[in-house]
Design brief:
Four copies of one chain form a homotetramer. Chain A folds into two domains: 55 residues, Arc Repressor Mutant, subunit A; 143 residues, Tetracycline Repressor, domain 2. Chain A is 78% helix and 0% strand. Chain A has nine helices and no strands. In chain A, helix 7 crosses helix 8. The longest helix of chain A has 32 residues. Chains in contact: A-B, C-D. The interface between C and D is large, with 44 and 43 residues. The structure holds a DNA duplex (21 and 21 nucleotides).
DNA sequence: CATGAATGAGATTTCATTCAT
DNA sequence: GATGAATGAAATCTCATTCAT
């Protein structure tokens, strides 16, 4: 590939990224039902035609947004774990990150949209499966590392993982839908603690 | 209220129920994105005009569907608890019912739709809050009854309730999105058991 | 079918006919490439939505126009032949009618459009086949009647029919594309005469 | 004109020819309705921008395609007649060539497209007139040569020419639209024979 | 009450054409 | 000459909502 092509590809990637970002912003602001290609174009300060130049159709753009979210998760975790050795600390980072998602007003509205689209769009369905799987895989890796290092004492990595993801996710949903349902921060802390108890058999680990 | 009005109201209720049911069926079949007023009218074998006679607009109908779901939950639990005294048995029924929701292919796609709509529609948002609250209230009532009867030994009813709802809900979502993610029945059973352990302090209670 | 349905169907037929007529007018004025659904709606003084209410899509409307043309041909011939017994006179009417089509500035532009669409649209293709077949069938019927009555003396009805249709059609095309190519009326008269010669063996029959 | 300009012009001609060929291929494959400038560029393995460098606009390109077809006709006939003296043989070649056009699946779809465009585009209209005129002129030349050589005995060259073009063209159209309408080869042979009869006076039918 | 024809705003999508590189 | 990213106008089609009957 020559110099020129590299430049072009960079430009293409740039535009795609720009549009994906704009789509994410619009999506979270207006929700899938009301957002239009025109909104995205306006948000990105580009023409509507260009959106279709880079993405086959609306659904293609949305799938790309979801894939982008997935990639961001991996990047975030990779970066965060760079200088961290302790599995306990890693799990803490992981859970804190997960609980923090509820902070971002928009993130879960977008996720809801994607779940909804899962039904009618197979590509979206697969991307959703992949994102959830990513969460489970990252979580399992940490737990297994903890077991290998003799810190965690469970034999049921997958089950514990499913529980962790479930309880965090379920908590977030309730909180996102009803911010006054309970003291989210307190419950998040308690749950973290309880999970460590479950994993280590002691309750004195401080997150 | 005279005889005629009663009759009319009955008929109105009948038509409304008929349309709500049709809306639920269409909604679960096609998802929010593709369903139309015409679909509902056809499903109910009525005219499109009539839908707007009984419901202000599309959103009004959808809110009514959600409220209907809420009512059904209460009715179901009331009926199920009619001849049951044991809080343990009640909690079992409650959790089994909740886990069973994942069985119904359609139920959670509809719920996803409603969550999504929560974002842009305040009435829908409120209805969603109410449904989640209903779950928490019903669950809390059972736990408090168990405490009163000396069977459950927790002081944190609300927290435990939130955990129960969260873990079940989170489990369902993962399962609905990826039916092969894990052995749902096994995990459901394990979770139930673990919740009873949490509540009673013993692990030998068989659900 | 009750009185009401009949009324409704009449109304439906009315609207459909109205739109087909409008489509025909617009089509001949602007040609397929430039004509829009909006044009038709405007021509019929109705809304664009209504066009789609009565016709699945643009192509569906066009196929309907072609079918309408076909029907008109049959109706015209049936009516014209009502009090005519002589096959010679019938064939004369038939050929005069055919040659007259070139008079209508629009008719053949529309036909060209349909031929063009034949390629990409199977329904249109079939409708085109049907129209041409209609012409052949009507022509053959007359010739056979003439043979039965001992007036025409050919054994090759189908071949003669194909020739008649071909030469008239080919003549029209040249004339429609180039009005000054030749003396259309003169040539039309000559061709008619020659065809009768071919059929009867004498040349003194005056059309 | 200097050496450089000649080179450039050659290159320009080359590119133009390349694009015209590509346009013809795309046009016959997809038909006017679905073909795009991008299709042509892709087919020619060039960029879309270049199409507009060599042709003012889409219509300009199409007119060029039609002119190209016209030129090809003349070239073909010139070449075919190179070593042929007999007008009978020449007319045979001419008619065979004409009838053969129906063989090429694509040729007449393209011609239909051009006829259709005739309506809304004057340049296209003229190009169409020119192509039809070319056919008549070539045919007339042969007949006149035959008369000069005492082989053909008609005094109505133009009329006979119009008939020949008409009947062949009309035959092709019926065949192109309905391949099973009749035995095309048989009818083509019969028509050729009959035309020669008409021209040589061997039959007793008077034109 | 009930119907469904009619409306019209608005969404997605396509594509000829332009222009900076 | 050559490229292809970018534009933006315009087309088709959908659908909630209205309203005369």
């Amino acid at each position: 590939m020559n110099q020129k092509n590299i430049k072009n590809n960079d430009k293409i990637s740039l535009r795609r990224a720009q549009l994906i970002k704009a789509a994410y912003r619009v999506l979270s602001k207006k929700g899938y039902h009301d957002f239009t290609i025109r909104d995205i174009a306006k948000e990105a300060e580009l023409s509507t035609g260009l959106v279709h130049y880079y993405f086959k159709d609306k659904q293609d753009l949305l799938v790309s947004v979801l894939k982008d979210i997935n990639e961001n998760l991996r990047n975030f975790l990779n970066k965060s774990f760079e200088n961290v050795d302790s599995p306990v600390e890693k799990l803490n980072i992981f859970m804190r990150h997960a609980f923090e998602l509820a902070r971002d007003e928009d993130y879960f509205s977008v996720i809801f949209d994607f779940w909804t689209l899962s039904n009618s769009n197979e590509r979206m369905h697969k991307a959703n499966m992949k994102l959830l799987k990513s969460y489970r895989i990252e979580c399992s890796k940490i737990i297994e590392e903890g077991i290998a290092k003799g810190i965690f004492k469970t034999t049921e990595v997958e089950y514990i993982t499913a529980i962790i993801i479930s309880v965090i996710q379920g908590m977030i949903i309730q909180y996102v839908i009803d911010r006054k349902a309970f003291d989210y921060d307190l419950y998040a802390a308690k749950i973290s603690e309880q999970i460590f108890t479950l994993l280590t058999g002691k309750s004195d680990i401080k997150p």
